[in-house]
Write a structure and sequence with these properties.
The complex is a heterodimer of chains A (463) and B (172). Chain A is mainly alpha-helical and 463 residues long. Chain A is built from 19 helices and 2 strands. Chain A has one domain. Classes of the chains: A mainly alpha (463), B mainly alpha (172). Chain A: GO terms for molecular function: NADH dehydrogenase (quinone) (non-electrogenic) activity; NADH dehydrogenase (ubiquinone) activity; quinone binding.
């Protein structure tokens, strides 16, 4: 509850800081604000609180998801030093929008009432629509914003329809109230409930870009400025899966037999489309968009095989995925900016040619992040995949397991293309320069990935 | 048939007809006018459901303010020229199939569902008035009500950010 209040207030404070002549303060202030919100998040650790007449519920799981979201936001903001260098940029609005969107993300993570979920989704989405179009001079950015906005508004409409039907069936918006309705009417659940579940799922799956609701993802991720793509693919996805988990594991667990088949089919479709299409990409950023679709598929396995291990697996996987994605986008941002071709920034695979020789640190950071995304041992991504696959094995859904392993071998192909380009191809001779603070963030993300890969037990027993 | 049922069916018929006109009309102005008619009919439904305040707000905000904006925008744009049809036949077929399946599913669900009958004994005409709504908003739903202001602020900041003129390049 406190981080929501703090971040709303800090967002307004940042807007006023935009009036200052000097822009130097904005970045450190934003970082301090996020850290303050993170600190207050932990005040509720170990306790379960219900706030404001069943509106919000904080427990350890919600706190962990909030931590992942705030940590990702911290790193993305820390990588945003280039705003300060642009002479005429007014970055206060960007930072304020990022903080406001975090309010929405935390609401999605700790909602207890579906109205809170809806308002949270809207706050996060509206901020993202705007940030997608923040590069006003680029037609691709404009296209991304418009596409995301139109499709996102439509998906929100479907989700709202689903929530209305759930209310019609159960007479309540409260997550645990729906649960008790499902249990008391175990044999005669209203059909409206099923309809509501499906429509709510469609809306939420759109937000986490699962197939067949993924069509916006490549264009939007590609057109959005890289910094905000990193934010979008980590914060929005983590919050979306936290919301899906809460609603599926609390409200609808009584009708598991109804929705698991649908979700299993969508999981396989997502894995297939994400991984196979990523192989054909020439742009690294587009490849990352398809890779984010495929990671949504892996996370969906955990939900399909809903069990006692699911929450731990989801937390670990989201953390591993966020760390790797942010360091990958961090490297891409520096490299693409310094190796421009005739079309402006170069975001293709060939931008990375010979990177390991000119800047071994960036090469290493990128290599670790690619290995982690591919799920190679000794990185966090491996244990994330391992835990997710364990949930499926525990539930006895082996065919989905076989399919997912098959798809992650496809994944190895396109992640290794980057590593091959960096280590075995000849590239431009001029070295790539990195600002010191930027370097520390990338190093920290890489070290965390490796530490979690060596000692996955660190997060055990927290939820 | 009770008189209220006749009102309901007439209203529903007009609503559906005008909603279909919104989609099928060739002229965008006709579309907008049909949309206004739809909003008025929906307000009628709200009144039937004892939500008088919502009905009034719907007319003021949607049929009034938003539709005027809509009309302005359409008149600013030059929509005279005939745009080429950009959808292929395959997309149209897919859309028809998907939409049709959704419609059939919903029809079946709504036919099969037994909704509890209205209890005329505890009818209270004041339920949908401002007073009751205000008490709800400022007690049970205080938190989402306040956080909706963050949503509006985000939309406002975003609109200003996208709308203002900026010189110079940006490096993201």
């Amino acid at each position: 509850m406190l981080p929501i209040i703090l971040l709303s207030v800090f967002g307004i404070v940042l807007l006023f800081m935009g009036f200052l002549k000097s822009k130097v303060l904005l970045l450190p202030a934003t970082l301090v604000f996020i850290l303050a919100a993170l600190a207050t998040t932990f005040m509720d650790w170990g306790k379960t609180y219900l706030y404001f007449q069943n509106m919000l519920l904080t427990n350890n799981l919600a706190i962990l998801f909030t931590t992942i979201v705030l940590l990702s936001a911290f790193m993305v903001v820390a990588l945003s030093n280039s705003f300060i260098e642009d002479e005429q940029a007014q970055p206060a609005e960007y930072y304020a929008l990022l903080l406001f969107s975090l309010v929405g993300a935390i609401m999605m993570i700790s909602f207890e009432n579906l109205i809170m979920l809806f308002v949270g989704v809207e706050i996060l989405s509206v901020a993202m629509y705007v940030l997608a179009g923040s590069d006003k001079h680029s037609p691709r950015s404009n296209e991304a914003a418009l596409k995301y906005f139109l499709m996102g508004a439509f998906a929100t409409g479907i989700m709202l329809f689903g929530i209305a039907l759930l209310y019609g069936a159960t007479g309540t918006f409260v997550v645990s109230g729906i649960k008790s309705y499902v249990y008391t009417n175990a044999y005669g659940v209203s059909l409206l409930l099923y309809m509501g579940i499906i429509l709510l799922l469609i809306g939420m799956l759109f937000k986490v870009s699962a197939a067949p609701f993924h069509f916006w993802t490549p264009d939007v991720y590609d057109g959005t400025p890289g910094l905000f793509t990193a934010f979008m693919s980590t914060v929005v996805k983590t919050a979306g899966f936290a919301a899906l988990f809460r609603v599926l594991s609390v409200s609808f667990v009584g009708v598991y037999s109804f929705w698991w088949g649908t979700l299993a089919a969508l999981t396989c479709l997502t894995l297939l489309i994400g991984n196979v299409t990523a192989v054909y990409q020439t742009s690294f950023k587009r490849m990352m968009a398809y890779s984010s679709i495929s990671h949504a598929g892996y996370l969906l396995i955990g939900l399909t095989a809903l069990g006692t291990q699911t929450k731990q697996a989801l937390v670990f996987y989201s953390l591993a995925y966020s760390l790797a994605t942010i360091s990958a986008f961090g490297v891409l941002l520096v490299v693409s900016r310094q190796r421009q071709d005739t079309n402006g920034v170069n975001e293709n695979f060939d931008a990375f040619n010979g990177l390991a020789r000119q800047n071994p640190l960036l090469g290493f950071v990128m290599a670790v992040s690619m290995l982690s995304l591919a799920g190679i041992p000794l990185t966090a991504g491996f244990w994330g995949k391992f835990m997710i696959f364990t949930t499926a094995a525990d539930k006895g859904i082996y065919w989905i397991l076989v399919f997912a392993v098959l798809m992650s071998t496809v994944g190895i192909y396109y992640y290794f293309r980057v590593i091959i380009a960096m280590y075995f191809r000849e590239g431009a001779a001029e070295p790539v320069k990195v600002a010191p603070f930027y370097r520390y963030v990338l190093i920290a993300a890489t070290i965390l990935t490796l530490v979690l890969g060596l000692a996955p037990g660190l997060l055990e027993g927290l939820v | 048939m009770k008189p209220i049922e006749i009102v309901f069916y007439v209203l529903t018929g007009i609503t559906l007809l005008s909603a279909i006109t919104v989609v099928t009309a060739r002229n965008p102005i006709h579309s907008v006018l049909a949309l206004i008619a739809t909003f008025f009919c929906l307000s009628g439904h709200y009144i039937l459901m004892n939500a008088q305040f919502l009905a009034a707000v719907n007319i003021i905000v949607y049929a009034g303010a938003i539709m005027v904006l809509f009309l302005f925008t359409i008149m600013f744009l030059n929509l005279r020229r005939e745009d080429e049809e950009s959808k292929t036949n395959l997309t149209k077929m897919a859309a028809v199939v998907v939409g049709g399946i959704l419609m059939v599913t919903m029809l079946l669900v709504f036919r099969a569902v037994q909704l509890p009958a209205v209890n005329e004994g505890n009818f209270d005409a004041r339920t949908g008035l401002v007073e009751q709504l205000g008490i709800m908003l400022y007690s049970d739903y205080l938190l989402p009500f306040e956080l909706a202001s963050v949503l509006l602020l985000v939309a406002m900041v975003g609109a200003v950010m996208l709308g203002k003129r900026e010189a110079g390049d940006r490096h993201f």
